[in-house]
Design brief:
Distance between the termini: 122 Å
Shape: rod-shaped
Strand order of the largest sheet: 5-4-7
Number of helices: 9
Oligomer: single chain
Radius of gyration: 46 Å
Strand content: 25-35%
Largest sheet: 3 strands, antiparallel
């Protein structure tokens, strides 16, 4: 059995008969067993395993040689202790029967859905949010030794982190700043899972479901907002149309033939629709010859429609 040495130091003070106080320092060399060294039982088990391999050769080769894929790594334990050299793979590696156990770890990116979480936002609105998380194993030894089940632990931590992060946001921020929330969740998850050998690559919020009453209130608010903007746009259109009509009237006053052309264009538009009844506008200028000069003047300056 291997041993290692250690120094044990004792320090103290005592009073002799003379009344003087003296201090002493004692150093002892202590030898103890190295806990990492293999014991006699372990050596005997290893010898018996090798003997079994030799006796059952070549059939034992089917149990001794293992293969891991390019995207896998094997963590080997011998009698409960982690073997030196780190994770094996990819390719072929050797294990002893009865005393060696190994565990495969997949290094590919894995995705899982976070179950819908009922979250109370900072402005006291209850929403149901679900997300998807992408992670991979970067340290196979830590993923096997330091955590019992890295997959289940990462899933539970993702659900808890989702509730904590969304609880610090308002509903408006939750609906508009999804990308910032995803980056914040990824940073928190990656920091927490780093000792486990797990790297969180991406977090995405899939859906945010609001209560039905809140959806109706938001729909009514959006509809009222759209109606208000439609009325404003219609009013602005009326203003522009009135300005255009004013400019057209000024042009027609300067050129009376423009009014006649507009009159003919209106008749053409009405006749193109093949109506059985045609409203024929009668120009007021035709009545001037039948009226007195005073009456014609009053009619001319009146605000009768033409």
């Amino acid at each position: 059995m291997r041993t290692y040495c250690a120094l044990q130091m004792d320090f103290g003070c005592y009073d002799k008969d003379s009344g003087e106080v003296e201090c002493y320092l004692e150093i002892h060399l202590v030898s103890a067993a190295n806990p990492e060294a293999a014991g006699c039982v372990e050596r005997f088990a290893t010898f018996m395993s090798l003997l079994l391999v030799i006796i059952t050769f070549p059939f034992s080769l089917f149990e001794c040689f293992k293969v891991v894929q390019e995207f896998e790594r094997a963590v080997i334990f011998r009698l409960g202790r982690l073997r030196k050299g780190g994770a094996r793979g990819p390719g072929l590696f050797f294990v002893l029967p009865c005393i060696d156990t190994y565990r495969k770890v997949d290094l590919r990116t894995v995705s899982f859905d976070v179950p819908p979480q009922e979250v109370l936002t900072r402005d006291s609105v209850t929403v149901a949010v679900d997300a998807v998380v992408y992670y991979r194993i970067k340290e196979p030894l830590n993923a096997v030794v330091r955590v019992a089940d890295y997959s289940a632990s990462t899933r539970l931590l993702a659900a808890t982190t989702l509730r904590n992060v969304l609880g610090m946001r308002d509903l408006a921020q939750l609906l508009s700043d999804r990308e910032a929330i995803s980056h914040m969740m990824q940073a928190n998850l990656d920091e927490a899972t780093d000792p486990w050998g797990v790297e969180v690559e991406r977090v995405e919020i899939k859906d945010v479901r609001l209560p039905v009453q809140l959806q109706r209130a938001m729909a009514a608010e959006a509809e009222a907002d759209r109606e208000a903007r439609a009325k404003i746009i219609a009013a602005e259109g009326e203003i522009k149309a009135s300005r255009a009509l004013k400019e057209a009237s000024l042009v027609m006053v300067d050129n009376p033939m423009a009014l006649q052309l507009r009159y003919l264009q209106s008749l053409n538009t009405i006749s193109a629709e093949k109506n059985s009844t045609i409203i024929f506008p009668f120009p007021m200028d035709f009545l001037r010859s039948f009226m007195s000069p005073g009456a014609g003047t009053s009619i001319t300056h009146s605000h009768l429609p033409v």
